[in-house]
Amino acid sequence: xxxxxxxxxxxxxxxxxxxxxxxxxxxxxxxxxxxxxxxxxxxxxxxxxxxxxxxxxxxxxxxxxxxxxxxxxxxxxxxxxxxxxxxxxxxxxxxxxxxxxxxxxxxxxxxxxxxxxxxxxxxxxxxxxxxxxxxxxxxxxxxxxxxxxxxxxxxxxxxxxxxxxxxxxxxxxxxxxxxxxxxxxxxxxxxxxxxxxxxxxxxxxxxxxxxxxxxxxxxxxxxxxxxxxxxxxxxxxxxxxxxxxxxxxxxxxxxxxxxxxxxxxxxxxxxxxxxxxxxxxxxxxxxxxxxxxxxxxxxxxxxxxxxxxxxxxxxxxxxxxxxxxxxxxxxxxxxxxxxxxxxxxxxxxxxxxxxxxxxxxxxxxxxxxxxxxxxxxxxxxxxxxxxxxxxxxxxxxxxxxxxxxxxxxxxxxxxxxxxxxxxxxxxxxxxxxxxxxxxxxxxxxxxxxxxxxxxxxxxxxxxxxxxxxxxxxxxxxxxxxxxxxxxxxxxxxxxxxxxxxxxxxxxxxxxxxxxxxxxxxxxxxxxxxxxxxxxxxxxxxxxxxxxxxxxxxxxxxxxxxxxxxxxxxxxxxxxxxxxxxxxxxxxxxxxxxxxxxxxxxxxxxxxxxxxxxxxxxxxxxxxxxxxxxxxxxxxxxxxxxxxxxxxxxxxxxxxxxxxxxxxxxxxxxxxxxxxxxxxxxxxxxxxxxxxxxxxxxxxxxxxxxxxxxxxxxxxxxxxxxxxxxxxxxxxxxxxxxxxxxxxxxxxxxxxxxxxxxxxxxxxxxxxxxxxxxxxxxxxxxxxxxxxxxxxxxxxxxxxxxxxxxxxxxxxxxxxxxxxxxxxxxxxxxxxxxxxxxxxxxxxxxxxxxxxxxxxxxxxxxxxxx
Length: 865
Description:
This protein is α+β, with helices and mostly antiparallel strands. It is 27% helix and 23% strand. The protein contains 24 helices and 36 strands. Strand 9 (139-142) and strand 10 (151-154) form a beta hairpin. Helix 6 packs across helix 8, helix 10 crosses helix 11 and helix 15 packs parallel to helix 16 (506-520).
């Protein structure tokens, strides 16, 4: 159950004891009286009555089989229950009912349509069946033992499955509950209206939960996240042995003897008798116990040091400092330490009211306080709040006024080989990867399109795959449908660019053009002749539209069949992989043989043509663009072409992509391409490496809308300055909060976390630079790890593109836990928190609360480099 603010009476007359065991006067005016507690935060959402009672849905498996289930919401709306029933194999056998509890905090998003691997595979199984195991006609019977009237089916082999296995998959009935890491629970509703009602309701619950949880301390939220696991008998209490399991789950190691001693002492502080202590602690009391353990640790907590250094351990009247006033907080902390000179006393008072409004279970004195003062516990909560993030909130927030420049003025979140699940040689191709990329913020998607088979009536079927390899094929039209589904539910999305690597003959290109028009409809941007002259349109002008990048011949033979560098062989790497010719040669041959379909060409805005000289490129039409491999990016910078390339990118577009030798789909460092003003720096989104995480951090700016205005040094009016003033930063990693186990595991040994602090930069000689330092190891403590006071210093030469990356590892096996990447241009100095993200760039489930606390100093180097 969620935390509450119940104040329990003690045996001592005239005092109250709350969950921390801290005494407070009985008569007081609470600042929280009129607040809606987190427990009731979802109460205002209107829920269809049948969702409380249970709505019938079908769970879709990748095999094509479906299982009937019941979807039900708990009374407090914090838990979703999925009830399934395994059918009896005989008349006398009992059915087995299973309930799966899903905490709202586990859910990343609700997704409509057939864009998950489960739906894709299930649909293929249903349409094509399997060569070795044809689908048998089911034998129908009544599920007599359960007393229900549901019709089930069983095969001759005795395995049971629903008759819905041979039901048509309808996108309008399909939806998925998507968890961290893009894992899904794929469901089908019985009716379209029911599906819309369910998904809309779940969306509203998630939105309300995300707003409400900002008013609750992270350690309380973490306890609530594991509560369903440990309170399996639903008593509402945790005894000492259960709390020991909780400690293991939240990565805090404590000897059994010490745990029992502290538990007994805390229970007595609460006024619990022996039977009460045996019964256990309520949720709120358990949260208080966690704080009690953390507060009484032998380790020196950074918040105590910060509090004493900035505000003083003793007040002017000689008493120990328990609180700090708004004026002292403004002058000594916000302006003096944090450097926020524009912050006013009104800003601080607004912030203080939020701190008073937070449900911090261990803060008793907050309820009797002056609203213009905060306690040390509230100060600590503020340190980890979003308002104190190291990533400047103003730069993280979306700014519509920045969306009116030509497309060439933006860095655009871009992917390479978007369809692949893994490597470029043997992995699967999946429509779901397009959906995943879109939700991750990607706005330029790549499609490698080839001639497929034909329908029975001879209609060509274009397919997408990595040609001349063992990767699987998916239908071109299914990708376009997935993109349209995304646009239907996100109509305000800034333009999606489809980068076509076109290997198709004319007949297949004609089908591609027809499918684009039919599926995308008004969402497809079709350039007019007039629109091709002058500067490129802005993201605001193209909002909600899909743009095609491919070929738009001007009628001359040379231009029509010129080879886009994106498809040409990267001779800086290799032209053969296991004896297989790379795609570019095949595409070039196809273009020379077939040309470009006029119907497809007229739908295309960006015309990819081969780079010859910068002089020629600068005079080409704005809609002409180039593509370069990572090796050519380095080569051009090495040959001092960066300045000219920046000039080109002020009015034209460039796309960069990984070298052909990266068969494993590894990524390259995107900073060098960004530093030359390249807009479409395409990375392999299926590979969760440090370079993709840099991309995540770059596009966290501007609300993760996928478009970030390039820095002034790369834009039209400012030009390129080779003399860039250097910036020096120093970082101390102070502590962490609520760090999970690797990949969010719920069991296993406590982690031994350490942090790798890395700065990615571009030096003035246009070479990439990566400098990293590790912290010490915090042994067996991910709940509140404290590190030693090592200071790491860096000199940043290109602060406009440089990135800071903080990565947490478990030393036991050097496993990745979480990370955060922040553009240096978006950093704020002072004592700052850093939100950590999992490998898929999400903060849900166990990762929703993971943070670091830094002491960060920044300053310009006096001399220019």
